[in-house]
Structure formats: C-alpha cells, structure tokens
What does this fold into?
Amino acid sequence: MNFKKTAIIAAVAGAAVAISSAAFAGGMPKKTAWTAYGTTSSGYAQAVAIGNMMKKHYGTNMRVIPGKNDISRMAPLRDNKAGYCACGIAAYFGQEGVFIFADKKWGPQPIRLLMTNIGSFGLSLATAKDAGVKTMADMKGKRVSWVQGAPALNWNVGAQLAFAGLTWDDVQKVKVSGFGASFDAIINGQSDAAFSSTVSPSPKKLAASPRGLRWVPVPHDDAEGWKRMSAAAPVYGKVKAKIGSEIDKKNPPHLSNYPYPILVANESWDAGEVYAIVKAMVEHYDDYKSAAKGALGWKLDNQNMQWAMPYHAGAIKFFKEAGKWDAAAQKHQDMLVGRQAVIKKAWDALAGKDSMSKDELKAAWKPARIAALEAAGLDPIFK
It folds into this structure.
C-alpha cells in the first residue's frame, strides 16, 4: 500500500497507541447496539447472526440499527448512540475526512477496526460485451457512467482506470442520477461501463439485456498495474471472483475488492469490550458462518493486519494472543494512527470553518489536508 513516502511521525503514532490497563476493564456487554446497512442487506443479516451467537453464548442483547445511507449508519457512532458499525467503505472515508466527512458536522473520524469480512465477490468496472473492452487499457475513449452526488462511486471508477494508467480525462463522462441509472445508461446505449459489485442486481439486468455483460479484469500478476491502482485506492485487494453475474466459477476472473462489512468502533470505545467481542467472533465463528449469506468471510485467516485503517487496541490484544500480530503489523498500525493524527490536527487548525458554506469548506479543506499530509511525508491519496 502506498500510504507513505519515507517519513513517519513515529513519536505521534507511538503516543496515540499507548493503552493503559484500565482501558481493558470491560468484557462482553449485556447490551450492544450496532448500525448496519438496510434490513434486506447481507451486512444486516450478518450482524443479526453475530448477535444471535452473542445471545446464545453470553446472554448479550444486540440491537441492529439499519441505515439507508452512510450518514445514517455513521451518525450513531459519532454521537455514541451505537458502539459499532458494520459499515461499508465509508468508514475509510471517515478516517480520511473526505467526501461526506468534509463537513463541519463531521470532520475526520477517530475510527478503529475490529474485524473485516473479505468475500469472494468482485468490485470492478462492468462493461457491455459489445463495447469491445477486454482489458482496462481498452477503456480509453469509452463512455463511462459518472454518478451525480456519489463521489465514492466515481472515485472507485478512477481507481480502476488507474490500473491501466488512465484517468477520468481519458474516457467520456456520462452523467447519471444514481447507481441504478448508471446501468440503465449502459442498457440504453448511452454509456459503456459503470462500477459495481459482481453480486449487485444491476449488472444482472445488463447481462440479460441485448448488450450483455463483461467484467474488466485487473490481472493479479500485473505488478505495475496493481501498484498504480493501490496508490489511487489503498483499500483494494486481489480476488478471484467466484460469485456474481457472468462469473465463471471454474475460471474465476482476476478482479479487485475490499471488505464488506467493515466492523468499526471509535478509538475511545472500551478496549476490554472490543477484545471480548473479537474473541467471541473468532471462537464462535462456526455458529454464524453459515447463518447469513457471505458470513464465511469473517474467518480469522481472512484478516489483513496491514490494511487501510488502524485496528482498535482491544482487537490488537486478541490478535497478539492469537499469534496474528507481528512487528510489521505494529509498524503499519503506528503509521496509520499517526496519519489520523495529522489529518485531525489539520482539521482543527482550519480557520473559519464554522462560518463557511459546505462548498467553501470543501474548497478550503482539500488543499489544507493535502498540505498537512505531504508535510508529514504521507500520501494524501485523495487529490
């Protein structure tokens, strides 16, 4: 991952991860509240399954709060009305203070990982078969759906294009009103490609249309391509996609994905409770792994100790006991915690933000954030 150049603010990071013994006073809670995606989502079903496991073994009552969007899922965490979020990639945007978090009601969030679910789905550019796209380089000059009001989706498109050294400037931008509309535009012959999960219903609609569906591969042996894409979006990992529309299970395509759900808490949340929850999720994995679609991805061996976000102190304690945490993981953790500290300091130092409009704040915050990270020898990523 291309998070840093060479300089690391070790002193800041070291101070930030110091944990007192009192922080580990808690254990399995009697009650807990998690936010998740809507009630029809796999993330919600998985949270319910994990809650059932907790009730069975510990008597814990879990309330799962469904949220229709990133704000409704993250706000209870921010306001301490929920301890945990089974979030999507918005959790990463929260730590970076970008997109919806570049707002005076938010700012960069002190988020920490507990565990992540790494599935066998892919996240990629879906194209019409008749568009003639077989490699990412073939995307040059093609029409690509650009979703208004969805910067995260458009950021993902840019990261995929970066695999072939392309940017949004190398394709034709087709503005659409929403995610569903991004595929309607392909079906209707107005666009050639859009970003999606392989398991979304929208690509299935495209596959059933006269234009057909093809996923644009990101070959796992293309080191330079992956270096470019990882620099644009450090959240991505390699996956041989095995589920979804037009996926050949016998010859799975080389695609990318990132975790979903991403289980997070605030840095200040009781470390003893976090430790107990992570331990329970690992030790009683068999109780919930088949109780909800996609839950297999929570297994301990799937956890990436050097991903894009820092882990909670309680989770680290368990991973150390399990023999999964080493010096390299700690070095990466220190860098990420230091990164969060730099972003938070820059946000706090941004003069006049309380009186700025949303657009004024975003315009002022972007260069301030970039300057602070670059001054610390860290890659801003979001430019």
